[in-house]
Specification:
- This protein has 333 residues and is α/β, with parallel strands linked by helices.
- It has 2 domains: 2-105 and 322-332, Enolase-like, domain 1 (2-Layer Sandwich), CATH 3.30.390.10; 108-318, Enolase-like C-terminal domain (TIM Barrel, Alpha-Beta Barrel).
- 40% of the residues lie in helices and 24% in strands.
- The chain contains 13 helices and 12 strands.
- It has helices at residues 58-67, 74-77, 85-99, 111-114, 130-140, 155-168, 185-200, 220-229, 243-251, 262-265, 268-278, 291-304, 323-332, and strands at 2-20, 23-37, 42-47, 71-73, 121-125, 145-149, 174-178, 207-212, 234-236, 257-260, 281-284, 311-314.
- It has an 8-stranded parallel sheet with strand order 11-10-9-8-7-6-5-12. Strands 3-2-1-4 form a 4-stranded antiparallel sheet, with helices on both faces.
- Helix 6 (155-168) links the parallel strand 6 (145-149) and strand 7.
Length: 333
């Protein structure tokens, strides 16, 4: 099959700066794709790289798109190299969109189809003390699972805020702690010890679901050791940014939680095959994509999630409403 190929760059400003151990993130940039087949069926895709997380850079993705001809084939789509995982996801998602015969303009889709009941979503809290002021608004919107970034400030300060947070959140809350690989081995032990003690304290019934990526990716063996030493679960994130990394960690013995970011992990078809073959415990998570990639990512999550864990797509409060500018981009293509 042959397809007419078009693409456009987008730039989207965060309503508030996103602060993690990797630094501050103020503008989300990516690429929207359109494929039109010989029967005029259209497929939409999105390339949303995060180079500091393990994907290609935006410049590498743009270079790849620019060197393609105006007409491409299945062979081109399914032979994108592994060094371009966000491109793999974007092009295959567009191919699958067209193959499903879903020809609607994505902007006309009801927002509830793009973001299912928020009870099944984990909402991202801001780092630091700001989390104490925002969780209630998100709770009123229906969220019951929250992720809080740690490893950003001094550990003594974060533990103090954590103490306030766990005494403030309602009892039915699930809380995830995400270090983005920013803890030392000693700090990771302290966080896990603190969470284990919390689990043993019947007076505080909220659930600490897991500690996400406590150590840098090169300290995999230490994370494997920690996962066997504490009751609080550990989830890998940066360590499994791409399919190759995911397979390598599984081969080395990781049987804990895998936080998968579909937008940068690589080929959706190969991801399906791996998850179905190995029956891994997954949490699907956003890369701050637009509604185009979000729809593709959520469809993968619906297919491959096994343990009814909330998906990490509760991030809309970090952006202005996207419909107007995305509609303009859509019309431009």
């Amino acid at each position: 099959m042959r397809y007419q190929f078009k693409f456009r760059l987008y730039r989207r400003k965060f309503g508030r700066s996103l602060t993690t151990n990797h630094g501050n993130w103020d503008i989300r940039e990516g690429i929207i794709l359109r494929l039109t087949d010989e029967t005029l069926r259209v497929g939409w895709g999105e390339i949303a790289p995060i180079s500091w997380f393990g994907s290609e850079t935006l410049e590498q993705a743009l270079d790849f798109c620019r060197q393609l001809p105006a007409e491409i084939t299945d062979e081109i789509i399914f032979s994108i190299p592994d060094e371009l995982p966000a491109c793999q996801f974007g092009f295959e998602s567009a191919w699958e969109w067209r193959n499903r015969g879903n020809e609607e303009n994505i902007i006309t889709l009801n927002s509830s189809l793009l973001t299912p009941n928020s009870l099944f979503y984990s909402a991202l809290l801001p780092a630091g003390e700001a989390a104490l002021n925002q969780w209630e608004t998100l709770w009123q919107q229906g969220y019951r699972t929250f992720k809080w970034k740690i490893g950003v400030d001094a550990i003594a300060d974060e533990l103090e805020i954590f103490e306030s947070l766990i005494h403030t959140l309602p009892a039915s809350t699930k809380l995830r702690l995400d270090a983005n690989g920013g803890l030392s081995y000693e700090e990771a032990n302290l966080w896990l010890w603190t969470c284990d003690n919390l689990k043993a304290n019947a007076e505080i019934p909220l659930e600490i679901e897991f500690l996400e990526q406590p150590l840098p990716i090169e300290q995999f063996q230490e994370m494997l050791e920690l996962s066997m030493s504490y009751k609080t679960a550990i989830a890998l994130d940066e360590s499994i940014a791409t399919l190759g990394q995911l397979a390598a960690c599984h081969q080395q013995g990781w049987r804990g939680i895998f936080v998968i970011k579909p937008g940068i992990v690589g080929s959706p078809s190969r991801l399906r095959k791996f998850c179905q073959q190995h029956k891994i415990d997954t949490v699907f998570s956003s890369v701050f994509e637009t509604a185009i990639a979000r729809l593709a990512a959520l469809q993968l999550a619906a297919e491959l999630s096994r343990n009814n864990r909330a998906v990490g797509f509760g991030i809309d409060h970090f952006f202005e409403q996207e419909e107007t500018w995305l509609q303009c981009l859509w019309n431009d293509l």
